[in-house]
Write a structure and sequence with these properties.
The chain is an alpha+beta fold. It is built from eleven helices and nine strands. The strands form two sheets. It has a seven-stranded mixed sheet, sandwiched between helices.
């Protein structure tokens, strides 16, 4: 009789523990339930009671609500303000500071006037600002850079813009000449070069010969007319134009010295009379405005006078 060998599986019975069977069945049910509708599977979480009791605000309610910490800070600020208001010391300090500022303004203005009263250059400037003014200007006969004689009567009918200086001036005169050059360029564009003449008159005729003057003015606008003359003529003309200048008497080198002088430019009318002035405190734009306004006013008066004459002629006929 042949021996029949059976597989091991057929010889060993399948024994499953009841608890294992229950566990497997539960997992299968959970998996099948989740696969059908995963949304229905929920897991409960424990919630902190303090979090659950917190109120829920909308955005506007949260912005409008009063934070206790903010209220506390506001109360502290209001308390500090009340304490400062009740304390009069801060008012005393404020009044003392205000009085100090006012005193500085008054004393500073007074000192400035006192300094100007002792400054001969400023005295000459203030003469122009007096009611009624003073008589400024006069006839002259000087020499230009080409050696030609120039008379004030030869320049009648033009506005004259005159500056008194010297070629050895280290800073002020070059700056004023540079400003005059810019003024010339702009005024010539607006009214033309035939209506006015810029002039540089030296107050140092011993050193500023016509050759020196010509070389000096070549660095600036060629429209500037340079004039020199004798020491007596320059001194007389400076007095007529109320120009202050002082040559040091104790200079050891006659070729190396500086001259203290007033810094002004005189605008003379076509009739040779003084009409306006500018100083170093005027920039080139302000100087242009003054010259341009004076020239336009003169032209308006001429047109008005011409119209009145034309209106009177038919009536006379």
């Amino acid at each position: 009789m042949k021996n029949i060998i059976r597989p091991v599986e057929s010889r060993i019975p399948l024994v499953i523990h009841p608890f294992t069977r229950l566990l497997l069945s539960g997992r299968c049910n959970y998996a099948s339930h989740r696969s059908k509708d995963a949304v229905q599977v929920t897991q409960e979480r424990s919630v902190n009671p303090s979090v659950a009791e917190r109120p829920v605000y909308t955005v506007q309610e949260y912005l409008d609500k009063d934070d206790p910490s903010q209220l506390r800070s506001r109360e502290l600020v209001a308390k500090k303000i009340d304490e400062a208001t009740d304390n009069p010391m801060w008012m005393i300090y404020g009044l003392m500071f205000l009085a100090f500022l006012i005193a500085n303004l008054i004393v500073g203005g007074r000192l400035r006037k006192e300094v100007q009263s002792f400054d001969p250059k400023m005295r000459e400037v203030r003469k122009f600002e007096q009611p009624g003014g003073v008589r400024i200007g006069g006839e002259f006969e000087l020499i230009d850079t080409n050696g030609n004689t120039v008379k004030s009567t030869d320049l009648r009918g033009k506005f004259l813009y005159i500056y008194f200086g010297f070629t050895n001036c280290p800073d002020i005169c070059p700056a004023e000449m540079e400003k005059m050059s810019r003024v010339i360029t702009q005024v010539d564009k607006r009214v033309g070069a035939d209506k006015w003449q810029p002039i540089f008159i030296t107050i140092d005729p011993e050193r500023d010969t016509k050759e020196v003057l010509k070389d000096y003015l070549s660095d600036f606008n060629p429209r500037i007319l340079g004039l020199t003359g004798s020491c007596e003529e320059i001194e007389r003309l400076a007095r007529a134009y109320k120009v202050y200048y002082a040559i040091p008497e104790d200079n050891t080198n006659p070729d190396d010295y500086l001259i203290d002088h007033s810094i002004m430019m005189y605008l003379m009318g076509p009739d040779g009379k003084f009409v306006d002035y500018t100083t170093k405190d005027f920039n080139w734009v302000e100087s242009i405005g003054k010259i341009f306004r004076r020239i336009l006013d003169h032209e308006r008066k001429q047109k008005k006078n011409l119209q009145s004459v034309n209106e009177q002629e038919p009536s006379n006929k």
